[in-house]
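Input:
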Amino acid sequence: MTRPRNRHSLSRRRLRGFLVVVVLVFTIFGLRLFQIQGLDTQAYAARAVEAGTARTTVPAPRGDILDRNGKDLATSVDGLTITADPSMTSDNAPRIARILVQKIGEDHIDYFDTIDKLRKPDSRFVYLVKGVPAWTAKKAVAAVQKAGFTGVFSEKESLRTYPGGRLAANLIGYVDGSGKGVQGIERQYDKQLTGTDGSSTYEVSPTGQRIPMADSTVKKMVPGGDVVSTIDRDLQWYADQRLADAVRASSSDWGLAITMDVRTGQIVQMSQVPTFDPDNQTGMQDYNTVSRAVQNVYEPGSVMKTVTMASLADQGKIAPDTPIVVPGGMTIDKFHIGDYWKHGTIHLTAAGVIAKSSNLGTIVASQQMSDETMYRYFHKFGFGTKSGVELPGESQGILKPGKEWTKANHATIAFGQGVSVTAMQMVRAVGAIANGGVMVDPTVVEGFISPDGKRTDAEPTASRRVVSKKAAAIVTRMMEAVTAKDGTAPAAAIPGYRVAGKTGTAWRVNPVTGKYVRGQNTVSFMGFAPADKPRFLTYIVLDKPYSAAGGGSTAGPVFHDIMSMALERFGVAPTGSKPPKVRQDW
Amino acid sequence: MSAHLAAPRLRPQKPQTRSRALRLVAPVSSRARKAPFVVVVLTLLGAGLVGLILISTVLQAQSFEAARLSDEADALQTQQQALSREVDRMQSPSNIAQRALQLGMVPSANPIFLRITDGEVIGKAVPAPAKGSIRRVTQ
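Output:
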């Protein structure tokens, strides 16, 4: 009987012992659980999330800049940034670098520089090259891997390309390394063009594989909107090419060609030489990247005579056949003024003054208005104020207030000296004469396309009447005499069309000394067609050509070619009417 | 209820019958088989587990497939961009002008139009000179 009793008490003791152990173990578990769940919750949760979450950024492509027919002027493509881990690449740096240079090209990546980067001590991450088109970069990275080297990686990015290269570069502008617009339309409409980068966060296994059906958050990427410019790509190319030839042939410092639809103010073409190539980033010096049409001021010379005549015509003080006695020379405030050809006292009509571009005749005519009146008209024509084209860094030019004018100021401003303008201001002012006296602000943007494909048209630009319709018609008739056989620019005439125009050969101001330089000119030609139903206005400016160059002979042919192409491309047929014969002398 | 309560009064019960009715009986030994139930439960659990594994495997496989397809889409998109850039280059005005010049073409010398409705030629026909306004493409 003792045995079973002993056994009984033994098992009971064991049972108690076990119970204590079990209770103890569970108490420890409980306490630990309480610690984890109750006290350190946040830290543990954060660590768990940290370890099991992966984040990726989805770069938003920048919107396109299109021409008026939807052709790409600037667009975004997938690009890659190639990176490396020097701790893995330093041993094979020269061989990896050679493969990369071979595949990407020497324009983008430097051999020795790459070797240095691949060998950077105490580093596990370097950027080798940024902004390489995805198709090129992928080939390069694949080639490195195929050769058996590790440690070269790629990261996705959005890359800006300009399919036209130098085409309209000064108008379109370019972006900096971070993808922000720094010039032209790229800068002015940066907000519309820039999208919002997306990102996605998801749970991954310790080996990096995405866990299906686990928590993930996705911030949607919103691509940038497109900007539709008013440029016609083909006309733009033709003008670029034609202007480049003219600048070279006349050995000018720079040249400009702008064509505007006078009814809407839309700039259909805006060329500049020399220019730059935003696509391969060549010629990026300030001298090339400056947008001369809006940022460069110069003295326009005789083209301004049209504005003087329009002011007089609006006051009823002049008509094409108004007789003017033109002296052989004048000295105003000890300043001698003559015409470009030597003559004694001659009798010209107002049309003759414009056709022959007589400075003295213009001065005589302009004496009919006071400084204040003339200033008021010039101000109305937009000189001294920005053209409203909405491009960055625009200059407003220099026009002294009428109260401060000297006698010499009044005389020289009448024929476009002593007043500084931008080409865009000049285009807007003469555009008013072409448009029957109503001045329309120029514009380079036709509309916007939102990321979802919805198109909104740009607001029509401001317009206001500056001179009467009759005054505009009078000046147009005078300007038609310029392209006649006995005018100053017969080379600008387009057979079959009536063309109104005006030449300009201005004394050039040295920007450093502020004084005129003998023998240096800025030559130009401004004209519009058809003269009896104006549609386009084209302005050509050539700065500092060889000394004998004149507006009619040098800029005139460029005007002829670009205007012809514009009329042809937009289907503007000749009206068929004959230009009225206007007497040039009496 | 009242009918139920009323019945015993009409027929008074006898005490013997009552005591016999409350006799203690031996418990009925239940011979219901447990095996089928256990099998059913195990089968259900087993099937659930296998199903879970299958679903998870399929999802994993699909995840790999999705990753592969997304890579492929990426590669195709890249290829498409490369090709469309090539098309852009071929369509660019400079390339077309270059080719036209090679074929001996020159830009039209003067704009001229043909009115389809009456066949009238509007504008002045001017023959283009052999060396036109564009002689070489530099832009």
